[in-house]
Fold this protein.
Amino acid sequence: MTELRKKEAEIAKDLWDGIDYAAGEITVIELVDRYINLRRNLKSNSLRAYGSAINRIRASAFGQRQIKQIKISDAKAWFLELHDSGLKTNTIEIIQTVVRPAFEMAVDDDMIRKNPFKFKMSDILPNDANVRYALSKEQQQMFLDFLRNYGNGNYYDDVVILLGTGLRVSELYGLTLSDVNLKDRYLEITHQLCRTASKPYFITPPKTKSGIRRIPLTDQVYEAFCRVIQNRNPFKGEFMIDGHTGFLFLDQYGMPKVAMHLENYLRNIQNKHEKETRTAFPRVTPHVLRHTFCTNAQKAGLDVKSLQYLMGHSHASVTLDVYTHTDYSSVLKAFDNIAVNL
């Protein structure tokens, strides 16, 4: 009887405060679906990431619970359960980017009183993301030499360009003839070429507005582009994708390359390198090449705002905290340059 009266009091308080008690009976996944359906400005990459997160929510017992039942401790316990099942923290963070604003919408709509997902992920889960690293100068040269001698493919110039520009691989493979100005030696980055299982080719804007930029070409990168343009062979005719044509980087079938091509190639060349040399080598991915460019530019003395521009980052903190790596020798060199003024 006491519990019943307590429940009646809670319902009466909710009604008095204008909170819709019945609305709180919808499930977590129903709330998330409602939230996503109201979003109209999501990019394709975000939709794919959110889609995976939503599928995880839908398949979980937690996703079938009523939102009025969810407390902060329940939300934390669910994330811990996901982590214990093998999910990485960054994957769970993507799930949080979906459920947190969805529950905030429920608060705004007077469905519930508090958002149970308003907490820092770092309070409950470890940072288990893979450590990002950059190749040393020696490793870069060794890798390029191996590609030249044992690569057996037309990816040498792709790697040279990524190391010398810091482009995202989807930006590289989105380049067309009209995007390369060999006379003034710069690239015009305005779009990227993507691919999914359900959609083989499509064009999207860069990851952020800051991704629209010009990239100057070093002599080595300029020569690589000259070779790419000279050797390209669209023997099936120029391919048109969302109004863009004249793609520079083509596979053996004359079709535009996508990120998957280079990722698979680098994975195979890694195995070949270890087999030929019988020595381990850091795993090279398109992201590693991008990190390496950023770190090289930082160590060479490029100021952070210029580096932020070249990388296409919205915030300089990303450039410094995530994409650059330093060591004692670099610090010592920089220190020696300013020591006389101390």
The mean pLDDT is 85. The longest strand covers residues 186-189. The first helix runs from residue 2 to 17.
